[in-house]
Amino acid sequence: MEIIDVVLLGILQGLTEFLPVSSSGHLVLGQYLLGIKSPGNTLEILFHIGTLGSVILVFFYDIKKIVLTLNEKPTQKLLIFISIATLPAMIIGFVFRHKINNLFESVNSVGYALCVTGLVLIFSSRFNNNDRKHSLFSSAMIGLAQAVAIIPGISRSGMTITASLFLGFSPKESAKFSFLLSIPIIFGAGLLGILGLQNDNTFSLSIILAAFFSSFLVGILALRALLKLLELGKFYFFGIYCICTGLVSIFI
């Protein structure tokens, strides 16, 4: 694989990881449209590690606050809620990992999933938000929404933010919890990928660095843009995009 192909896919990953349009689905479409043969999960894991760095940088002060207040009850509760919300995706992802991997080969499946994502995002505009506090129930519901997003074409951020809005959280809190929730998921996938890379000579160091930095830098810009759009109440605009992209994917 040429380094320019890796950079293009890294830019695509960085843009779509945080925008609620499904990064996994767009990687499938990007590989198809660019005529790039899928190298398997290793390259996608490298992209995810880059976007993990984006989350850590953008939410650095929130993460720093969590680390410095680990002995305080509110922080301990938050970590419990994040753990509960993480479990469904981890369990379902492990049990159905082989079937899910097969979906990465189907552009049509991604198209249908993108249409579902689009409808969910448009529906999110109907919710009235307030300052609800997290609970075991809300964490479990958000976790189930995240688990559904294991399917390529279903947006993780779209599902978790919409679930939070539906449960009554403010847009700011919905986004913050969604992206804090992404850290253990991306870290876990990245750790497994790094262990696998020890015996993987498929990619050179330049390819690995290109994958990381392209997704990392673009991811920062995309994440800041999404937070701004949430403040402006324009979240549902992405729904229209997902439906249009999904329909094109189904018929190409």
From TrEMBL:
The UniProt record lists the keyword Hydrolase: yes
Topological relation to the membrane, as annotated: Multi-pass membrane protein
Pfam families recorded: BacA
Transmembrane segments: 6-33, 45-63, 78-96, 103-124, 136-154, 175-197, 203-223, 235-251
Compartments reported by the entry: Cell membrane
One GO CC term, this protein: plasma membrane
Enzyme class: hydrolase
EC number: 3.6.1.27
InterPro entries: UppP
Keywords (A to Z) from UniProt: Cell membrane, Hydrolase, Membrane, Transmembrane, Transmembrane helix
GO molecular function: undecaprenyl-diphosphatase activity
Catalysed reactions listed for this entry: di-trans,octa-cis-undecaprenyl diphosphate + H2O = di-trans,octa-cis-undecaprenyl phosphate + phosphate + H(+)
UniProt record similarity statement: Belongs to the UppP family.
Protein name: Undecaprenyl-diphosphatase
Protein source organism: marine metagenome
